[in-house]
Amino acid sequence: MSRIIGVFDSHENAEKAVNEVRNKNISSEKISIVAKEDSVGDNNQDEGFNATEMSTGATTGGTIGGIAGLLAGAGALTIPGLGPILAAGPIAAGLSGVAAGGLTGSLVDAGVPKERGEDYENEVKSGAILALVDTNNRTDDVEQIFRDNGARKVEKH
């Protein structure tokens, strides 16, 4: 299985990308999102989101679906060295029982090299949204969707 990872600075762009991925008939169970609980970064133009908004399905400037649909019902997790985050999808299971490995450890367990996992963790610390999609045969589609929606550091692992 291939895993496509991208970093988004904008909640709106991440939302669009997730919706487009779902429109390619990729199940929500294959999509993971990790973000700080209280914001999506200083460089975006929306107002961010928090656990209360996500658990009630309300989004900033968007409709239920995309990130809100994935995170509806997701609780905030506190990760050592990272603080409170929201996580949904396959990556959330690895994070919920994590003690010392943090997000980096969960990403390494998912097949991401340690150095890249550390980089992704730092991106989330700084307020970015990390999106991961597990895919077998739609890898190129997902990579292109991420890039078309402003993702940085789009990689296949």
Description:
The chain is an alpha+beta fold. It has one domain (2-156). The chain contains seven helices and six strands. It has helices at residues 11-23, 51-56, 66-71, 90-96, 102-109, 114-125, 139-148, and strands at residues 2-8, 31-36, 76-79, 83-88, 129-135, 152-156. A six-stranded antiparallel β-sheet has the order 3-4-2-5-1-6, sandwiched between helices. A hairpin with a 3-residue loop joins strand 3 (76-79) and strand 4. Helix 1 (11-23) packs antiparallel against helix 7 (139-148) and helix 5 crosses helix 6. The chain is globular.
What low-confidence regions span 5 or more consecutive residues with pLDDT below 50? 39-64
The largest sheet is: 6 strands, antiparallel
> Helix and strand succession?
EHEHHEEHHHEHE
Q: Approximately what portion of the residues adopt beta-strand conformation?
A: 15-25%
Structural class: alpha+beta
Radius of gyration equals 14 Å
Shape summary: globular
Short description:
With 157 residues, the chain is an alpha+beta fold.
Key terms:
alpha+beta, globular, 22% strand, 6 strands
